[in-house]
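Please decode residue identities from the backbone states below.
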């Protein structure tokens, strides 16, 4: 019977999720040891319900450099840490993922850097993730790989384990081929993804961009939402078909709605407004401090509205929550300096004693505090220049059970394709952005309620559980080379038998580990 200390090779699962990060953060236990606390990210909320009822493992980096800790259980989930050295973090994560891929995949808002040693490290780390998955996956398992950091993993896993079903989900945009083609390693990246059976994207346009890249860069044939492909050096009869489709991610609507209805959150929302001097209109922004999120345009539009005396503090107040992000990267350091200098200038000119024009918060908050901020804000600004989805827009809507709140949403956020009743803006068009902000500020209460009701219905109907279920259904039914049904049946029986034994072991082990 497996225990938490057994080597991972002895333990196999029928659902394996792989993401750059494990869904836990290491915290000091006060006695020189480590405790694992669930991280607040949306992905774990999305996957928990589908993983809880299955025999599931999660492969990812534990967030600290050096030798990875031993695999361990948490809440019936087998967590398999992958080691990353300090140099690998610099080259695979900060370098290739965030200074090469991230800018290319976000319209080259800042210039991308290309370094062969970053690419080599990206390959090495992707191989390490692939091996960890291969070891954890039971015969015929489902493997779900996440995001741009792990694009080579599908093909690497497929080579060793043709028996498993592999999906990949892209949380960020997939760029137009004209931008993607800049990557010296574009072919390898596409071939890496083509190891999957199903590739999920936030928008239909992202899936189309991927299929176009297959046609233009690899001369492959696409039909509808599928592409046919023979892996290099493999018998042509092993031709596979890969499907690419849009499955837009969402949020835990019920959880947020319930949280925002608690007396504590309602009271805290009132308290926030009171601390800010009870402004007539509270405008809010909540983002990672990232150049894709449109801080510069937002502040420019806001400063112009103040200068032109269309708005004035303290009647209208802006609260800007900027979650610290990727602070080792130059472009992020520069952005922070610029944002802070701009806010300083705005406050110097337009604040009064006891009331700031802009309240700037560069820190992370607990979920309940975020819900209170959402509930306190009359207008929510979500103005990215490019964003795969933007969960903040959906979180705001989920918290506004009072139907009183207006969402200003960039047409360059994936969420815009679903949230049609928001006040639309093009963040590159400062005049247009000012009009959208004023449209939201001046909107009559009944119009706000009508829009918010429709937005809430959309998010409630397409919540994160539905996203995860839809993804897994699409993966299960994706076309690929059919396996013999007899071998499938044999594998399923084997998995079922092993599963009941392991579930008992899991319960036992979870009780032993305290977090
Ligand atoms: C990538 C894609 C896609 C923010 N401040 C605090 C805090 N947050 C939380 C928000 C939200 C999350 O962080 C940010 O999610 P986003 O979707 O806005 O953005 P990315 O981090 O860029 O995520 C994006 C997403 O993946 C999912 O597929 O939507 O397009 O870029 O949940 O609430 N959370 C806490 N304190 C904060 O101060 N606890």
């Amino acid at each position: 019977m497996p225990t938490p200390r057994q080597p991972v090779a002895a333990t196999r699962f029928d659902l394996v999720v792989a993401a750059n990060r494990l869904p836990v953060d290491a915290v000091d236990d006060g006695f020189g040891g480590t405790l694992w606390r669930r991280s607040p990210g949306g992905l774990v909320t999305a996957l928990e319900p589908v993983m809880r009822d299955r025999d599931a493992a999660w492969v990812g980096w534990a967030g600290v450099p050096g030798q990875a800790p031993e695999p361990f259980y948490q809440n019936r989930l087998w967590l398999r840490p992958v080691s990353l050295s300090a140099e690998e973090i610099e080259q695979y994560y900060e370098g290739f993922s965030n200074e090469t891929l991230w800018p290319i995949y976000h319209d080259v808002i800042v210039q991308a850097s290309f370094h062969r040693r970053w690419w080599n490290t990206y390959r090495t780390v992707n191989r390490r993730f692939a091996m960890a998955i291969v070891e954890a996956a039971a015969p015929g398992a489902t493997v779900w790989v996440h995001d741009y950091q792990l694009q080579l993993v599908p093909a690497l896993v497929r080579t060793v384990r043709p028996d498993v079903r592999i999906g990949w989900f892209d949380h960020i945009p997939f760029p137009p081929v004209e931008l993607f083609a800049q990557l010296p390693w574009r072919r390898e990246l596409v071939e890496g993804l083509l190891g999957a059976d199903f590739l999920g994207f936030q928008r239909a346009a992202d899936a189309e961009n991927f299929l176009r890249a297959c046609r233009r860069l690899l001369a492959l044939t696409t039909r509808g939402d599928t592409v046919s492909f023979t892996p290099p050096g493999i018998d042509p009869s092993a031709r596979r078909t890969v499907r690419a489709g849009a499955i837009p991610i969402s949020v835990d609507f019920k959880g947020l709605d319930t949280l925002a209805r608690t007396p504590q959150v309602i009271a805290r929302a009132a308290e926030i407004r009171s601390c800010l001097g009870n402004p007539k209109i509270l405008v809010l922004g909540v983002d990672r401090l990232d150049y894709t999120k449109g801080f510069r345009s937002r502040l420019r539009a806001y400063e112009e509205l103040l200068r032109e005396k269309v708005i004035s503090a303290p009647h209208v107040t802006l609260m800007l929550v900027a979650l610290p992000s990727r602070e080792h990267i130059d472009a992020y350091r520069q952005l922070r300096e610029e944002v802070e200098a701009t806010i300083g200038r705005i406050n110097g000119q337009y604040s009064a004693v006891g009331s700031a024009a802009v309240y700037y918060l560069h820190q992370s908050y607990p979920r309940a505090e975020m819900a209170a901020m959402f509930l306190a804000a009359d207008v929510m600004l979500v103005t990215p220049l490019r964003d795969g989805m933007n969960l903040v827009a959906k979180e705001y809507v989920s918290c506004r059970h009072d139907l009183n709140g207006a969402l200003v949403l960039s047409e360059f956020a994936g969420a815009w394709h679903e949230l049609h009743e928001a006040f639309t803006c093009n963040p590159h068009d400062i005049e247009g952005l000012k009009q959208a902000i004023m449209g939201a500020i001046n909107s009559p209460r009944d119009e706000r309620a009508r829009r918010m009701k429709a937005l809430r219905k959309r998010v409630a109907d397409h919540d994160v559980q539905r996203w995860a279920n839809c993804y897994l259904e699409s993966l299960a039914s994706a076309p690929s080379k059919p396996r013999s049904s007899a071998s499938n049946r044999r594998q399923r029986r084997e998995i079922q038998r092993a599963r009941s034994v392991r579930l008992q072991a899991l319960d036992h082990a979870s009780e032993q580990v305290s977090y």
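Observation: The chain has a mean pLDDT of 90.
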